[in-house]
Amino acid sequence: MAWRFNPVTSTNSLFKSSPSGVTILQTGPLYVQHASTATLANSTTETTIFSSGIDNVVADSGLGPQPQSSLYLPANSLTVGTIIRGYARGIIANTGTPNLTTRAGIVNSASAFTALATTGAVAMTTISTSDYEIGFEFQVKSVGTSGVIFASVYHRYGSTIVFKQPVTNTVDTTQAFTIDCRTTWGAASASNTQTVYYAIVTSEG
């Protein structure tokens, strides 16, 4: 399960109350996946790379309990210059040369996922089993109803790395949302499988 700390009063939390009463995100680890894995196999359904973890989030009364597979950020908690980085590692295998897509983004209160960065559908080389790595980075350039976030994402297996240069996104940072990263196989096969063994999401700035 996920431990949840009050963002304003807990000394363990990375959220602090500003003089105006706004909850602000601080620097440090936000989410750590532990004691479980996230697996995508024999499916073409887009699936989160996150599983149960310890995180410093608390459910906003307007949104209700948030899923343990993603990272919840309260409304107005981002500030200019904040960088959010995510990193995950595991193993991957395939059959033939299927496409693999990795997308990092945000989920709103209506559970709609918006990709801020994507690798696109990239054809893999044939592998039996390989180490696997996913990373993404968001940097807040401005905040507000038309806030700007730069975002990039990559995935690596063996010596092959697919990296996409940062892209600009308009994001309403006055709204609460969760951070998520998802992958999709281009073809379903029992041999097309990936398992994330650990993941961490941090905040800087």
Labels describing this entry:
205 residues; mainly beta; Jelly Rolls; 8-stranded antiparallel beta sheet; 6-stranded antiparallel beta sheet; 0% helix; elongated; disordered N terminus
Structure description:
- The chain starts with 14 loop residues before the first strand and ends with a strand.
- The protein has strands spanning 15-17, 23-25, 28-33, 38-41, 47-48, 53-55, 71-73, 83-93, 99-107, 113-118, 122-123, 130-142, 147-157, 160-171, 177-185, 193-204.
- It is mainly beta.
- Strands 3, 4, 6, 8, 12, 13, 14 and 16 form an eight-stranded antiparallel β-sheet that branches. Strands 5, 7, 9, 10, 11 and 15 form a six-stranded antiparallel β-sheet that branches. It has a two-stranded antiparallel ribbon with strand order 1-2.
- It is 0% helix and 53% strand.
Indicate the percent of residues in helices.
under 10%
Number of helices: 0
> How many extended strands?
16
What number of domains? 1
Using the alpha-carbon principal axes, give the shape. elongated
Helix-strand string: EEEEEEEEEEEEEEEE
Rg from alpha-carbon coordinates: 17 Å
What top-tier CATH class fits best? Mainly Beta
Averaging pLDDT over every residue, what do you get?
81
CATH architecture: Sandwich
Our measurement of the CA-to-CA distance between the termini, rounded to an integer number of angstroms, reads: 28 Å
State the major sheet: 8 strands, antiparallel
| CATH topology tier name | Jelly Rolls
Low-confidence stretches: 1-12, 55-70
What amount of the residues lies in strands?
A: over 45%
